[in-house]
């Protein structure tokens, strides 16, 4: 049993945690609450920690940074590797947990029980800070429970604190279905929280030499899985306010609370310097003066920019064409070719933070827009955008949830506009494009459209199941009818890799009969899981 967490223990924890996640990878993937076969939380956590382990393995002989201990240096390497390899929401949040942990242990000479508790509290704070609107019943709840239990233990006994944290995390995981109705209906626990429990159990094993015996979480029951509505942005606020700020962390915390009450889309990212650092602040508000005053109260704001979303100024001379670029995430050869034809740099689906950052830097552009094309990749894209700031590259993420939205966004791109105006125009075009996905159910489920069985054809509009049936062509035609019932002039069809021959031709013919004044564009997309993707503008 270890009395302190040294650098060697940090390395063994990373290796052991990765091995444990690989053992549980399929189990965590299957905690997906959507009735389509694309659950990948376990896979994303494995890939994220693989990057952390590789960062440690490549720096075995690197001396600690000035002011950092050996265990702190190892922890920072682990966190940085996780950040660059982070995939999906859970991967990004895990990277922030490891960053908070590393920040806490970096300078302390010895990590015993109380220091471990402080590190878990720092990890919790970093995780919550990384999420704009924290939701309980998730990975956040589990890490918070671990930190609280570690602090209550109030001892320097390292192993005792680690056991208490792992046990509390497992108990919190078992309660997640009580906090999120979607989990309760599905009879599952939170996938990201399960992954964190696996990592904490691995830490206990490294410190004690014994396999942890966590409290068993609520088992999966016979109750059907349920769908969860995907997040959407708010249009309640008229102005985007951005500025750089020199301030202390304490002052920034107070400013963050003020800005959160004023608007949404709040992002505050610091450079990590103490006691006073530089922070990049972004928020959408209606009261611009109050937002700037909050910055003045916190420290010294500068490079203040205010954009009114409703403004559409006349095109003005912008930077050279090679001064800006677009990076798009694409799953499917056909979709990738469409984006490449629009002049975008294409990154394969489910990228890591590092892969997106490499793509951004490879454009050699000072201003880059990133189109992630799904909610999980949006978190990764935001992390890559923050990292790109270190290289002097301004990155804006347009939160596209489907390739058809990205096509709409790229169609309005105009190098003659100011970059910020161009990003707004692209976001508006993407938001005006409604999207749908047609797939086959992979499991029995209770959806808002009724129950489905494995093999049933599902049509999801904006992430929510709207139609269930047996015939693929009929459901594809029906979902287009439903979307055009709300208006539209252009329908875009992307055929998946498993789409039967003639599917898009049949849908095109149906639209010509029912909606003779609507234009239809059809392309071979090559995407997996979804025989057809639909966009309506």
TrEMBL record:
InterPro entries: DegV_domain_contain, DhaL_dom, DhaL_dom_sf, FakA-like_C, FakA-like_M, YloV-like. GO terms for biological process: glycerol metabolic process. One of its GO terms (molecular function) is glycerone kinase activity. Residues 8-205 form the DhaL domain. It holds the Pfam family Dak2. PANTHER family: DEGV DOMAIN-CONTAINING PROTEIN DR_1986-RELATED, PHOSPHATASE PROTEIN. This is DAK2 domain-containing protein. It comes from Micromonospora orduensis.
């Amino acid at each position: 049993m270890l009395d302190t967490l040294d650098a060697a223990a940090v390395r063994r924890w990373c290796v052991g945690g990765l091995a444990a996640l690989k053992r549980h990878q399929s189990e965590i993937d299957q905690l997906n609450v959507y009735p389509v076969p694309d659950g990948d939380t376990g896979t994303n956590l494995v890939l994220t920690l693989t990057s952390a382990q590789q960062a440690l393995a490549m720096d075995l002989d690197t001396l600690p940074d000035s002011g950092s201990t050996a265990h702190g240096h190892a922890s920072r390497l682990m966190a940085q590797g996780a950040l660059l390899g982070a995939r999906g929401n859970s991967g990004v949040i895990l990277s922030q947990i490891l960053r908070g942990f590393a920040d806490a242990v970096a300078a302390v000479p010895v990590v015993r029980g109380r220091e471990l508790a402080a590190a878990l509290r720092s990890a919790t704070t970093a995780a919550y800070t990384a999420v704009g609107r924290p939701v309980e019943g998730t990975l956040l709840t589990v890490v918070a429970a671990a930190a609280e239990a570690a602090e209550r233990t109030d001892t320097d006994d390292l192993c005792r604190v680690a056991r208490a944290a792992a046990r509390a995390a497992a108990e919190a995981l078992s309660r997640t279905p009580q906090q999120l109705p979607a989990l309760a209906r599905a009879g599952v626990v939170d996938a990201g929280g399960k992954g964190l429990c696996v990592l904490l159990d691995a830490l206990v094993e490294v410190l004690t030499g014994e396999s942890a015996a966590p409290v068993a979480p609520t088992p999966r029951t016979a109750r059907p899985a349920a769908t969860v509505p995907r997040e959407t942005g708010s249009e309640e606020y008229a102005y985007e306010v951005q500025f750089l700020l020199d301030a202390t962390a304490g002052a920034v915390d107070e400013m963050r609370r003020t800005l959160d009450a004023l608007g949404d889309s709040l992002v505050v990212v610091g450079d990590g310097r103490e006691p006073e650092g530089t922070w990049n602040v972004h928020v959408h508000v209606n009261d611009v003066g109050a937002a700037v005053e909050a910055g003045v109260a916190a420290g010294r704001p500068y490079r203040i920019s205010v954009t009114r979303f409703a403004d559409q100024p006349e095109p003005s001379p912008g930077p050279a064409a090679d001064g800006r670029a677009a990076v798009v995430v694409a799953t499917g050869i056909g979709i990738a070719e469409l984006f490449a034809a629009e002049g975008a740099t294409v990154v394969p689906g489910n990228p890591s933070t590092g892969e997106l950052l490499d793509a951004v830097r490879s454009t050699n552009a000072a201003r880059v827009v990133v189109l992630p094309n799904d909610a999980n990749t949006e978190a990764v894209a935001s992390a890559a955008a923050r990292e790109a700031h270190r290289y002097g590259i301004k990155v804006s993420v347009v939160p596209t949830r489907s390739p058809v939205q990205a096509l709409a966004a790229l169609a309005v791109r105009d190098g003659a506009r100011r970059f910020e105006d161009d990003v707004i125009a692209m976001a508006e075009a993407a938001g005006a494009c409604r999207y749908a996905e047609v797939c086959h159910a992979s499991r029995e489920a209770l959806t808002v459209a009724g129950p489905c069985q494995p093999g049933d054809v599902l049509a999801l509009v904006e992430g929510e199941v709207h139609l269930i049936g047996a015939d693929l062509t009929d459901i594809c035609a029906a979902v287009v009818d439903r979307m055009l019932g709300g208006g539209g002039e252009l329908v875009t069809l992307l055929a998946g890799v498993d789409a039967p021959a003639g599917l898009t031709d049949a849908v095109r013919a149906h639209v010509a009969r029912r909606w003779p004044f609507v234009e239809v564009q059809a392309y071979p997309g090559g995407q997996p899981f979804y025989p057809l993707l639909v966009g309506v503008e």
